[in-house]
Write a structure and sequence with these properties.
single chain, 598 residues, 5-stranded antiparallel sheet
C-alpha cells in the first residue's frame, strides 16, 4: 500500500479522502440518517485496513464523546425539574424597543447555552419567543434567527457548551497530556458574542419579516381538508344538499370523489355513497365540526363505521424537519397517518397556505402541517420526532424542591471542573448520578434523554479525524496551506479558520472540528508554534455557522416556526461569518499570544 503514491498520498490516504467526500456528499444530497452514514464510513475505513479495530472504534471510548453522553442526563434533570422553564419565563420581560428585545433575548440564551445543549435551549425558547413577539408587535422571524445565533455564540464560551469544543479539547489532551480548562474559551467567546449582538443590532434590516406558518392557519379563509363517508353513514342515499354537506359556513365543498370518479362540477344534487371523499375549503374549526356532526371520518383509509374513529381529538401544528422521511413525498402516498394515528388537515409553506388537497401535496423541509391528533399523544415518539417538530411539544414541568437541587448540582459541576479540582468527565458522572439519586429525573427519563444518534455522529467524527491524521492527509494539507500562506502564523490561523467557518455551513460542526483539528495542530507544529491558541480559534470558527439553515441544528429548529426561506439566513449570515471570524482572530491573539514551542 505504501508503495502506491499519487500526488503525495498513498492508497490508504486516497481511500480516506474518498470516504470523507462520499460521506459528505451523501449527507448533503440524501435524507439518510447521519448516524448510519458515519457508521458506514467507520466500516469502510476498518474493512479497507485504513484503521485497525481499536482505532476504528476508538471514538466510542473517547473522553469527549462520553462526556457528551453523560451531560444528556444532567440536562434531563434540569429539564424535568423545571429549571430551564423557569429561567426562560423569567428572563424575557417586556422590553419597550426592538433593540432592547434583541439584547434581552440573546444574552440569556447565550449564557444558558454556555453550559447546556444549545438545541435544548432553543427548543425551550422557540414557542415562548413566538408568543413574546406577538406581545411586542414584532414578527417572530425578526427574533428567531437572533435566538439561534445567540445559542451558537454562547456555546463556544465553555468547553461543555458545544460538542466541537469537547472534541477538540479531548484530542488536544490526547496529543499533549494537558487538559484544557472548562473556561478556556470564555473570554474569546464573550468578546465574539458581544460583537455578534452588536452586529445583529446594526444589520437588523437584513432580518426578514415573514409570516409564521401558524398565521396561515389562524387567519384562514380558504384551505383544504379531505374527509370520507363511512359505509354505515346515515346520509348514504341522500344528496349533498339534503344531508347538509354542500353548504358550509365560512367555506365550501370544492371536490368530491365517487371511488375513482370525480363529478365536475359538484352540485348539491349529487348523491352520497359509502366511501365517498369530500374535499372542503374553509375554516378548519367549521370543517372539523361539520365532519363530526355528520359522521364523516378521516380520508386516510376506508372505515365501515364512525365509531371506529377516535373523536377525542385536538388540532396541533408541526413542521417538517430537515432530513425527514416525509420530504419529497405526499401524505396520501404513505402510511404516516395510520402509523401515527393522525389526520392531515392543511399544509402551509413559508407562512402561506397551499390550496391543494393536503394529502396530495409533495412536502418540503420547513412545511407546516395542521394535524388532527389524539388529545394524549407522545409527540416525542421516535417515529414522530424523526420527521416532525411540534410547536406545542414542550410540557410545563412541576416546580418544587428538586428544582433547587438540580440547579445546585449543575453549578457544583461547573465550579469544581473550572477550578481544576476534578476532571470534567468525573464531574459530569457525579452530577448525573446526583440527578438520579435526588430524583431530579427518573432512570427512564435519563435514558430517553441520551441521544444515541448524535453520539454516533460524535464518535464517527473522532474516528474520521484520526484517519485523516494517521494517513498523513492532515500533514500534507498543513504543508499545502503553509506553501500558499507562507510562514506567518497569523495568516495560517486565519486561512484555516476561514475554511473551517464555511465548511461547517454544510456539515456537522462536530465533524468539522474533528476534521480540522489535525490540520490546524500539524500546521502550528510545522511553523514551530504552540498549537493551543490555534485550536482555541478553531473551536470558535467551526461553531460559527450563520449563513445556511443546515449549518446548525438550532437553525433547523427555528427555520419552520419562523416561516423562513433558505436565502434568509444568507442575507445576514455571510456578513456574520466574516465579522465573527475577524473578531475571533483578533481576540484569540490578544488573550493567547502565539508563542514558539520550547
Amino acid at each position: 500500500m505504501d508503495s502506491f503514491i499519487f500526488w503525495g498520498f498513498n492508497l490508504y490516504a486516497w481511500i480516506t479522502i474518498a470516504t470523507v467526500l462520499g460521506m459528505f456528499t451523501i449527507l448533503l444530497t440524501t435524507r439518510w440518517r447521519p448516524d448510519l452514514v458515519f457508521l458506514g464510513a467507520i466500516g469502510v475505513l476498518y474493512v479497507t485496513g485504513v484503521l485497525d479495530a481499536k482505532e476504528a472504534f476508538s471514538g466510542f471510548s473517547s473522553t469527549s464523546v462520553v462526556v457528551i453522553g453523560v451531560l444528556f442526563v444532567v440536562v434531563a434533570g434540569l429539564t424535568h425539574t423545571g429549571v430551564l422553564y423557569c429561567i426562560v419565563r423569567l428572563l424575557l420581560g417586556q422590553p419597550k424597543t426592538y433593540n432592547k428585545a434583541i439584547v434581552r433575548l440573546m444574552l440569556p440564551v447565550a449564557a444558558l447555552s454556555s453550559f447546556l445543549s444549545n438545541t435544548t435551549i432553543v427548543s425551550l425558547f422557540v414557542n415562548i419567543v413566538k408568543m413574546w413577539a406577538k406581545k411586542l408587535g414584532v414578527a417572530p422571524s425578526k427574533l428567531l434567527i437572533p435566538l439561534s445565533y445567540a445559542s451558537g455564540m454562547g456555546g463556544v464560551c465553555t468547553l461543555i457548551g458545544t460538542p466541537p469544543n469537547l472534541i477538540i479539547s479531548g484530542l488536544y489532551e490526547e496529543h499533549t497530556g494537558v487538559a484544557m480548562n472548562i473556561l478556556a474559551t470564555a473570554i474569546p467567546g464573550l468578546f465574539c458574542l458581544a460583537v455578534g449582538v452588536l452586529s445583529v443590532l446594526a444589520m437588523q434590516r437584513l432580518l426578514p419579516e415573514r409570516k409564521t406558518p401558524e398565521s396561515a392557519f389562524e387567519d384562514t379563509t380558504e384551505y383544504t381538508v379531505e374527509v370520507q363517508v363511512p359505509s354505515d353513514n346515515k346520509h348514504i342515499g341522500e344528496t349533498l344538499g339534503e344531508a347538509g354537506l354542500f353548504h358550509l359556513k365560512g367555506g365550501s365543498l370544492i371536490e368530491m370523489y365517487h371511488f375513482d370518479e370525480k363529478p365536475t362540477p359538484v352540485s348539491e344534487d349529487e348523491p352520497i355513497m359509502g366511501g365517498d371523499h369530500l374535499v372542503y375549503a374553509g375554516q378548519i374549526e367549521e370543517i372539523i365540526d361539520i365532519a363530526w356532526k355528520h359522521g364523516l371520518v378521516s380520508a386516510d383509509h376506508h372505515v365501515f363505521s364512525a365509531s371506529e374513529e377516535d373523536t377525542s381529538r385536538k388540532l396541533r401544528t408541526a413542521y417538517v424537519t430537515f432530513g425527514s422521511n416525509l420530504i419529497g413525498t405526499s401524505i396520501g402516498n404513505s402510511t404516516f397517518e395510520k402509523d401515527n394515528n393522525v389526520v392531515l388537515a392543511a399544509v402551509a409553506r413559508r407562512g402561506k397556505r397551499i390550496n391543494e388537497v393536503p394529502r396530495q401535496v409533495v412536502l418540503q423541509a420547513g412545511d407546516t402541517l395542521l394535524l388532527v391528533c389524539p388529545k394524549h399523544m407522545d409527540v416525542n415518539a421516535r417515529s414522530l420526532a424523526a420527521n416532525l417538530h411540534f410547536f406545542d411539544s414542550q410540557e410545563i414541568p412541576n416546580i418544587d424542591w428538586s428544582t433547587l437541587v438540580s440547579s445546585l448540582i449543575m453549578i457544583a459541576m461547573v465550579v469544581v471542573s473550572a477550578l481544576g479540582i476534578m476532571p470534567l468527565l468525573q464531574c459530569a458522572f457525579l452530577a448525573a448520578a446526583a440527578m438520579l439519586i435526588c430524583r431530579c429525573c427518573s432512570m427512564n427519563q435519563a435514558m430517553k434523554a441520551i441521544n444515541w444518534d448524535i453520539l454516533m455522529v460524535f464518535a464517527g467524527s473522532v474516528v474520521l479525524g484520526l484517519a485523516i491524521q494517521k494517513t498523513g492527509i492532515a500533514e500534507r494539507m498543513a504543508f499545502g496551506i503553509l506553501d500558499v500562506c507562507g510562514t506567518n502564523p497569523l495568516v495560517v490561523m486565519t486561512a484555516i479558520c476561514f475554511v473551517g467557518t464555511f465548511i461547517t455551513e454544510f456539515i456537522s460542526n462536530t465533524a468539522a472540528g474533528a476534521m480540522f483539528f489535525p490540520i490546524m495542530y500539524h500546521a502550528a507544529e510545522k511553523l514551530g508554534y504552540d498549537p493551543y491558541p490555534f485550536l482555541i480559534a478553531l473551536m470558535i470558527s467551526v461553531s460559527s455557522s450563520f449563513a445556511t439553515p443546515i449549518g446548525s441544528p438550532t437553525h433547523m429548529l427555528v427555520y419552520g416556526p419562523g416561516g423562513y426561506r433558505f436565502s434568509d439566513f444568507m442575507r445576514i449570515g455571510l456578513l456574520m461569518n466574516l465579522i465573527i471570524l475577524a473578531a475571533n482572530i483578533f481576540i484569540v491573539n490578544l488573550i493567547y499570544p502565539i508563542t514558539p514551542l520550547p
